[in-house]
Amino acid sequence: MSEYVLQAHQLSKHYKNHPALDRVDMSIRRGSIYGFIGQNGAGKSTLMRIAAGLSRPTSGQIELFGYREGTKLVQARKRIGTTIETPALFPHLTAAENLEVFRLQKGIRDKSQIRQTLSLVGLEQAGSKIAANFSLGMKQRLGLAVSLLGNPELLILDEPTNGLDPVGVVELRELLLHLNRDKRISILISSHILSELHLLASDYGIIHNGRMLEQLSVSELQAKCRQYLHIKVDSPERALGIIQEEWQTTEYEIDADGIIRLYEPFGRPGELSAKLFAAGLEVQQFMPMGEKLERYYTKLIGGAANGKPVTV
């Protein structure tokens, strides 16, 4: 049994002269939740479409469950469920009728999967309401239900939180964690809500302008997200003067609200706090913190966009 449910090997896709994907390598471990991060147009949906067999690569290969070619790859695609871009639904049919169509298309004999899957995604009370009258969030749930038919081993979900209210986002997160932990379904998920991915993903891939910038596990991300002192004082300029005079460091940032993020000397917070108080500064906030996924991602793609090394 392959350690990976999905791998991309030097995968490229060109539309005329535009490279949507440029020699992308990707590895998704069995049992993981892989958070796929990138701006609109970065290549996330293109890669997902190729993995699902909805598009052909210009060069390179997709590997599913250890299979790369021919009928074995076609058979392997029957072991995945996908919701890519807008869910393809029949607007004049109810939720149950939609699932019945897809059940027949997939050759699934067990009709009880329809009721079970609707209950799983919270649409068991949809009744006779047709999909055309669904909210965007309900359509997202129904699209997820379609992808769950047939008990897939890998879910590929493109922006599944679109249209969901905050409660719906939390419910979806809990559902995906349940599917991953209890049913052992591996998940490839893209989202613009990076804080939500941070609560879900065990691994990350960061793509920018069609190129994979980095793949890393959650433990590797935590190691790279630098620790810092979060400092808010009544005079940031005076505080920075003290920091520069006493420690001769430039390892800091200051944001528009005057918050100072001091990366060095992080190991001497007590000494710094005493210096600020001794200078008569009003220290309003002074606490150790760590960078989050959003900040790490912004730095990474900022460096790539400016031709800088993508190390942080």
Automatic annotation (TrEMBL):
SUPFAM superfamilies according to UniProt: P-loop containing nucleoside triphosphate hydrolases
Domain annotation ABC transporter: ranges: 6-234
The keyword Ribonucleoprotein appears for this protein: no
Keyword line: ATP-binding, Nucleotide-binding, Transport
Gene Ontology MF terms: ATP binding; ATP hydrolysis activity
InterPro entries: AAA+_ATPase (IPR003593), ABC_transporter-like_ATP-bd (IPR003439), ABC_transporter-like_CS (IPR017871), P-loop_NTPase (IPR027417)
Keyword Transport found: yes
Positions of transmembrane segments: none
Family: Belongs to the ABC transporter superfamily.
Protein name: Bacitracin ABC transporter ATP-binding protein
Source organism: Paenibacillus borealis
